[in-house]
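During the first year of the project, the team set up a workflow for recording each protein of interest as an amino acid sequence followed immediately by a discrete structure-token representation. This format lets reviewers and collaborators read both layers of information side by side without switching files. As required by the reporting guidelines, we include two representative entries from the current panel. The first entry is reproduced here exactly as it appears in our internal archive.
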Amino acid sequence: MDVVNPVVKRWQQDAAADPDAFWARAAARLPWFRPWERAFEWDPPTFRWFVGGLTNISYNAVDHHVAHGRGGHAALVAHDERGERRVVTYAQLLAEVRAVFDRAPDSRWPGLKAHGAPELFAHFRGQLSLEDARRIGIDHTRQYAKRQMTWFRHQMTPDVVVDPTAELGLEQTEKLLTKTEA
């Protein structure tokens, strides 16, 4: 008895026969803002898929389904420990994502205090170009890293230097250490 679905078996055969053509056909079913030039490029040890192409995986995962009449289909199905089941449709998920996006960035949200997040939201709202958002985010990240390095340097500066070759008695060492801790 064969447990592999005949459709999946056909896909496996097609992929083995001509991988580039197989993946090009699969990717053509998704929306692309800029089509790719080559489906696959391999320059060992590096490889790249859909070279030159531009798409948005988040858009493909949610918005595309709603735009093509599948908003009422299940996007997420969750089962909790009590056995209850919750189904979220693509339209509901899109509404939730938009509601979060419309409220953000709120400085009370710890995750949005990350360097670069406010700039990305400004880009998503059309207030900054992607290149400007990237540049500002990189500048903020560098400034943050410099502050962290300064803090680490101060933490790494020893308060007490003990010379293990010195002939201090245990009593003198204890006095020295308790004096600096106080």
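The second entry, processed by the same pipeline in the following quarter, appears below.
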Amino acid sequence: MEQVRQLVLHFLSSREVLFVRQTLVCHPLGQTKACSTTTFLVPMSKVYDISLTLPDDQKVTLQVDENTFILDAAAKAGLDLPHTCLQGWCLTCAGQVIDRPATCIDNSAALRYYPEDQEGGFVLLCTAKPRQNCHLVTHQAWAMKIYRRKRGRPTPGGKPMFDGLP
């Protein structure tokens, strides 16, 4: 019992979610079965605080587990953030990390996300999963488009360079 208590304390201190599962285990003994209930503590995903700053300077903090896209968590919380493709391609859902390197977000599910995007702190919320607590500014599609074009990277519906824009 002490081991179970220590395990629970470990998971609670690491902010991992625990799922308690009780299972009926039966073992055949001759012609009868002996059954007992066994309790399992199953570690689930880690949960992170993701703070969002919206265009009206409203700040919202979401608790997002490491297997959930930030855009999905925001929608579940009632936020209507811009999005179109839900594949990490169109830049409509772009955000920017403002308090640490963009490595606090995993954008590996995006169809078009470049190392330069991460260097600039940009993330695509539709394919972004948290890896640390972090603070993001939403509605950054235009800023990300300009950033990419200045670096010769393609943007949806555009050439690698802006004509007449910085």
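For the second entry, the following points were noted during internal review. The radius of gyration is 22 Å. The beta strands are 16-29, 32-53, 59-65, 94-97, 105-106, 122-124, 129-130, 134-137. Both points are flagged for discussion at the upcoming steering committee meeting.
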